[in-house]
Amino acid sequence: MEKKIKLFLEFLQSDKRLSNNTLQSYKRDILQYKNYVDTNKINYLKVSKEDIKQYLMYLQDMNKKTSTISRNLASIRSFYQFLLRNKKIKTDPTEGIQSPKIEKKAPNILSSKEVELLLEQPNCIDLKGIRDKAMLEFAYATGMRVTEIISLDVDDVNLETGFVVCRNNGKQRSIPLGTLSLKALENYIKDARPILIKDENNKALFVNINGRRLTRQGFWKIVKYYKDQAHINKDITPHVLRHSFATHLLQNGADLKAIQVMLGHSDISSTQVYMQFQDESLKNVYKKAHPRA
After folding, report:
1. Where are the domains positioned within the chain?
2. pLDDT by position in tens, the chain (length 293)
3. Residue 163: phi, psi to the nearest 5?
């Protein structure tokens, strides 16, 4: 089984071009499954649907979250489909097994006033402040994921057209930049970044004070620092800015399909989670505008 798992992971990396984080998730899930079948002396090539269901119940008994169990099933299903394509098995034992329903929780968002307060915090009198202002404005203006932002190169941004090109897992999308974000970004690219980078061959858009590409942890620390400076009593992560971006667009009349494209969601159901906030906004408009409200 170890050899087949290795081949499967190589396939995901080379053919599917999955990110390292996603690849590691698959690896953890499959190795955990391997440990289960080994412990219970089950031949992984001859497992039945009942065996798979028993494994999912085993995960449930371990108090695993519904989302974790669902992800495990997806990983195992991909593994068996890989074996099926390579004619190592005749039928997929996961076929027809439904994933447990995941309750979509309301995302944590900031109000427009809280966003404004957060974005006002960086003091643009030094290199770090100029960079931080550009980074926070950019994150809120684009709604991009942290990994997407820190992976950007300076050539991915076109200051003249006001667009950024985001590339993720072989896919590409163009996202417009607002006036304030463009201004902050232009200041950073022209005045701060050339001094921060130590090597002219460094193409990273956002760099740390040592001139290296900014990391996820570095990004998170910066957001947390300014959240504390703004005295905002909410847990704010870079992803909260993404949620706020989508929610505020929707509340101000943006089309759901357009938001889906900008967020890079493959399924519009992922974008529809923001509709609950629009409902509240519509209620307020109704109360103010309708003569019999």
Report:
1. 2-85, 112-287
2. 888 899 988 888 887 777 788 889 899 999 999 999 999 899 999 999 999 999 998 888 888 888 889 999 999 999 999 999 989 999 999 999 988 776 666 667 898 999 999 999 999 999 999 999 999 999 999 999 888 999 999 999 999 999 999 987 778 899 999 899 999 999 999 999 999 998 888 999 999 999 999 998 899 999 999 999 999 988 888 888 988 988 888 888 888 888 888 888 877 777 776 676 655 555 565 456 656 54
3. -130, 150
Return the CATH superfamily for domain 2-85.
Tyrosine recombinase, N-terminal domain (1.10.150.130)
Residue ranges of alpha helices (H) inside 15-107 are 20-39, 49-61, 66-85
Burial 240-259 (b: 16+ CB within 10 A, else e): bbbbbbbbbbbbeeeebeeb
- Identify which of 14, 98, 90 has the alpha carbon closest to the alpha carbon of residue 56: 98
Its sign, for the CA torsion 221, 226, 229, 230, is negative
Tell me how crowded residue 19 is: count the other CB atoms within 10 A of its CB: 13
The CATH number assigned to the domain with range 112-287 reads 1.10.443.10
Q: Of 92, 57, 60, whose CA–CA distance to 77 is shortest?
A: 92
